Amino acid sequence: MADDGLLDKVHALSDLELALLLCLISREHCLVSTPSDAIDDLMQELQLIATKTFGLTWVVIDCTPSTTLEDFASALLLGNAASPSSHSPTASRHPDSYFTSRPSTSHPRTPLSPLTPSGAFASRIANVVFAKNLDRAPQAVQIQALELLRTRRIFTRTSVQTAPKQFVFIPVLEAASGGEARVTAHLNDFLYIAYWHNPEDGFVNLEEADGGNDADTASTASVVKRIPGEETSSDPPLIVESDISYLGTLSKEAQVDVEIIRYQMNVVSFLRMHRAVAGGISPTATKHFGQLMRCLAALHRLDFVTPALVGLAARKVYLHRVQLTPPEKERSMQWGSRLEAVEALLEDIGPEDVIEDVLGMVTAPV
């Protein structure tokens, strides 16, 4: 069905790389989270993935409660790049480096091209935007982000900037679990999938980069100073745009049997009716659910969707969407349930538990 060499490369990707690949295939956006003590490593890993795995330009927006609309809009653009060697993803892990990174925005090195005369960036939006701690930004900034995703353009002080064909917006949040990571409601619903990264799973690209940097430092015989990020920009990316387009075509051709559609709709219905759920099971989520099922089929060398892929898609699509009901509003309270009993029932239940509960209740087609 598909090119075996390409799918072998896909199957060798890490979970973080697969999350970004799924977004590129579907032309959607995702939410990534991790515990607070690992967020800096996660940011560096994501930057390396964008550069090494997909060959894409990226920027980092470090959001705070004082971030303004103008700050957000200007940080999206590659045109304000500072010193080309000051934005290595591994720089902050090596404090003795001569190079430091800017605190609010970061830009990658981009090789010279006819589109960037004299090495200067044309003013344009990066392919990948990492919005660190977007949940801390004012609601107006988060709504501006939603407008960017919906229209694929943003107004700056002097111009209108259009997002590139390959464009992914990734809020990167601090959260103890995947179900706790959220942004403002409408933006949250617009995001395709969510992924919570366990630091114990490691940071593959970052560890490889650190190993290379350590080897360079240990070599006292060498007098050539390698610029941070130089080796990643010269190597061809693992997955190129034509590969992504090919996988996108395969996903659109994946067949979904009527029994699978019934199973999918049953999962949606059971999620909506679950006693712990207050909302979040939206029509947009159902659309994303169907998209992701087909994408996963293509990545698994299948031209049809299986029940197992439905379950996998549900875990990714609804992780950040499921809104839990407070005990006093749980529906059985209308018929005389005791508040203490309901509180005990709902204690320690998170979105992950709700999704697993529903997948256990709904009978999959044989």
From TrEMBL:
Pathway: Porphyrin-containing compound metabolism. Gene3D superfamilies: Magnesium chelatase subunit I, C-Terminal domain. Residues 272-331 form the ChlI/MoxR AAA lid domain. Residues 98-113 have a biased composition (Polar residues). Residues 84-113 are annotated as: Disordered. InterPro entries: ChlI/MoxR_AAA_lid, Nucleic_acid_metab_PIN/TRAM. Its EC number is 6.6.1.1. It is an enzyme of class 6 (ligase). Signal peptide: none annotated. One of its GO terms (molecular function) is magnesium chelatase activity. This is magnesium chelatase. It comes from Fusarium gaditjirri.
